[in-house]
Amino acid sequence: MKRLSFLVSLTNNDNDYQQEQAAAAEKAARRLGVDAKIIHANNDAVAQSQQLLHYVQDSSVVRPDAIMFEPAGGTAFPQVARAAAAAGIGWVVLNHEVDYVLELRRTFKVPVFAISSDHAEVGRIQGRQFGALLPNGGSILYIEGPANSSAAKERTAGMNLTKPANIQVKTMRANWTEGSAYRTVSSWLRLRTSQESHIDLVGAQDDSMAMGVRKAFSEIAESERARWMKIPITGCDGMPKTGQAWVRNGTLAATVFIRPNTDLAIEMLVEAFKSGAQLPERKVTEPESVPSLQDLAASAGRLHRSAGV
User: Fold this and answer.
1) pTM of the model
2) Distance between CA 57 and CA 266 in Å, rounded?
3) How many other C-beta atoms are found inside a 10 Å radius of the C-beta of residue 144?
4) Tell me: the pLDDT tens digits for 19-48?
């Protein structure tokens, strides 16, 4: 059997989770003896669509055996998916809800499936973290991902299901990068309304965005900086060298570990191509709170008791 070749299209290279997605794909490819080419869309859905079409339709490039991608926008490119499957190229959607997988599987013989973290559960965990960190309630600045992201929508819905009723949420949007969250929050901090706001906690849907918020807080006028820098900040993704390390050193109060799934996708594709195994239409991985919700509640309780709350 010829050496298998996979194309991995990720949203950007400025986000620690996307960087871990690339590293996981490369590691799995080496272990399984296949080729994995990593490309990035720079958060541009149009550019990503054109990139993928290039590998599907351009006769000047060697077609991959399968394409896996995490959508940079709100669409998972159904037309490109059909063109790829018709050309004999497998198709894997990462971390996005799609409704065309079953139809493609019925029509074409190539592997087609979706693999994602349970983003609603990510949000539910965050809501419980907020409750643990603010046992007496309070106000949260919540940094969401893009409005067209199904992952962002599911995380918000999950968070609203589990956060206590005595916690109020003010939302802002950014684009899964530190820089985008920094710009959003910096602009808000220049408004008078921000100075009149009382924020007890920041929750971001991504660790990189959480760090962008922290950077914006660090640049506030010195007379106000200490107050803002004391506000606990939480994130999501929980990569070992970034999010989890930031929790350990106190930069973040908590995060949610979302395991990379490019390696799982490559394992499933190799199994399908080599053995003809029938793959599930959709695979879901489970997120975890870092630290555990029990430990978070215990540490928050100690802080509140020491402060005389």
Assistant:
1) 0.90
2) 22
3) 21
4) 999 999 999 999 999 999 999 999 999 999
